[in-house]
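Regression test attached.
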Amino acid sequence: MQQKPSMGAAAFCMTDTTNKQAPQQPVLTRAAFGDDFQWGVATAAYQIEGAHTAEGKGPSIWDTFASRKGKVKHSHTGNQACDFFHRYSDDLLLMKAMGIQNFRFSLSWSRLLPDGTGKINQAGIAYYNRLIDQCLELGITPWITLYHWDLPQALEIKGGWTNRDIVGWFGAYATLCANSFGDRVKHWMVLNEPMVFTGAGYFLGVHAPGRRGFGSFIPAVHHTALCQAEGGRILKQLVPDAQVGTTFSCSHVEPLREQENDIRAAKRVDALLNRLFLEPALGLGYPLEELKFMRRIEKHMKPGDEELLRFDFDFIGIQNYTREVVRYAFWTPFIQANLVPAKKRNVPYTHMNWEVYPEGIYHLLHKYSGYSTIRKLIITENGAAFPDELRDGQVNDQQRVDFLQLYLQQVLRARQEGANVEGYFVWSFLDNFEWTEGYEPRFGLVHVDYSTQQRTVKSSGHWYRDFLRGHNL
Ligand code: BGC
């Protein structure tokens, strides 16, 4: 089950990440990716907007969850976050100055529909109109995610993702978004990382809404998978000239030892993390052969559901941070597998304790290119948290520069070998609210001082700008 692990105070060492036998890396320039390759940055509403009660916004499950004691480190909440709701205009100007041409952000469902369904909050529509219009004026292409984990609390009270009615609620929300913004927005993603929000939110209980166990998880998975396809159909129908995708958290998975039980455990983890939500959309059904413990999902299937789970997305969003190394674990319920943490394997890792493993993205790109029905891949998130410090008005985050370069080199290598990857978005533009970890982990190309809301472009932001300008680095 993928969850967000707690932070460790480790830095990664460049020399450790390069395998001495690794093939020669291609030269990393923007031009090497070709003119049509799309470059951008990614964010999400709850993580940056703040203004949690402003102008008619209703509460989301993250507003509720973060306000509960002990759920988020240091009792941090997204109430203010980066105050992007009020500062978006200056932030877009900064983005423009950094040469960023594609901006991925999500819509807050409860800002648009405070009760999840029914009454529309016109102030919410007006806010996103201003944001979209300024993007377009600046020549920045908006890429919208419909759902990045912040379900309206009013819907959670009715069962949230465990209630099949969500297919109708989500459909109405998707319709509103497509009708309101589809005249100008031509790049859409339905969901952000369904495995993470159902696994962490409805099985482990460590993310909002904090529910636990199979009784919640199994129906949440099925209804989410139905919404994934339904959202795609609605967007495509209402905005026929749009590129419609959806995004998945993906990690390259390997067995700890070349032993039968570890190999089988790794296959189960791979099915859970990398295939569970993708394959039904491709018409392949849930990977129940590997995930026997999930067979009870069939009880939630109604006649015709297999067809309803399918949607032919224009692109699949790949979100990759790390690799997972797996060992067989008899005592771990259901999956009988454990993830072996990077720290125990003596490999480099980031401030999230996630292994730095650039080759992982290379393997994933080939893996997903192997599905003949995936039209194209976009890396909708990749990045790293490091313990950045603001000193004398500067943030020298060389580790992040190294990380991005090493991962991009592997993206280029896969692309040159024929992987159908056509875009790359850095997570994230700004430091932001990192869910249960609060504000401690910093993922941004731009540093945020949360007491003053001062923005400072980090070395990685300068590097990305120069890279995008095609400077020889
Ligand atoms: C999520 C982001 C998150 C990032 C780093 C992705 O799983 O989409 O919301 O901040 O990873 O943890």
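Expected vs. actual: identical. The chain has one domain: 9-248+268-320+345-386+397-443+464-468.
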